Amino acid sequence: MKKLVWLSIVMFAISAVAQSNIALPAGTSMKVKLENALTTFSNKSGDPFSARVTEAVVLNGKPVIPIGATVQGRVTKTSEPRRIAGKPTIAIFPETVVLPDGQHFMLNATLVDTSVRNGTDVNNEGQFKGKGRDGKDMTEIGMGTGGGMLVGGLIGGAKGMLIGGAVGATATVAHWMGKKNSAMLPAGTELVMELSRPLEMTAAATGQ
Fold it and tell me: Partners of 38 in the beta sheet?
């Protein structure tokens, strides 16, 4: 009888240890909603961000990270290129997941998608790329060049058209080179992240 009781205690302890040593594999997806806006014109490297888990992360049919858990991290890069072909960039690094009961676990994940559309995307490095210069911008550059050629032609014929076109193009391109190209991830934006490394959810990893 004593042996049976002892065996039951041992099995219970093994089960408890197994449940407290959970590892989510690399590639596991996490869907979260951004709690604070991130922009290329107001944020810089090192700024914190926070996001709320909107869909439970499940392992073997059991929820491991519940809805309402928090993902915390920092901005690693923001840029607003002035080049016509450049795209504004926001890069973030998720560092910690905090469960509703207060447990903290180290997190290493990469952004793979957002709910923001209209010409934006996320590259292979997990960087959010804002909308670049579009066809409307290129049309304005063309109109600036054409306008310069028209004025130059009225004044000085063919030679004037060439000079006017060059002046018009220079002025228009200079305008776009000086115009900031911004990007924004508003609060409430839905983000999809993937674990870059396994997430070890052990008692020793909680930092409590």
Answer: 185
- What is the distance between the alpha carbons of residues 107 and 48, in angstroms, rounded to a whole number? 15
Tell me the residue type at 56. A
Contact status, residue 129 vs residue 88, Cβ threshold 8 Å? yes
| Bridge partners, 190 (sequence order) | 33
| Model confidence pTM above 0.90 | no
Contact 88, 79 (CB under 8 A): yes
Cα–Cα distance measured from residue 77 to residue 161, given in angstroms and rounded to the nearest whole number: 44
- Burial of 79 from C-beta contacts in 10 A (0-12 / 13-18 / 19+): middle
Q: What is the pLDDT of residues 73-85, one digit of tens each?
A: 999 999 998 756 5
**164 CB contacts (<8 Å, ≥6 apart)?**
148, 149, 150, 151, 152, 153, 155, 156
Q: Residues with Cβ < 8 Å from 201, sequence gap 6 or more?
A: 21, 22, 23, 24, 64, 105
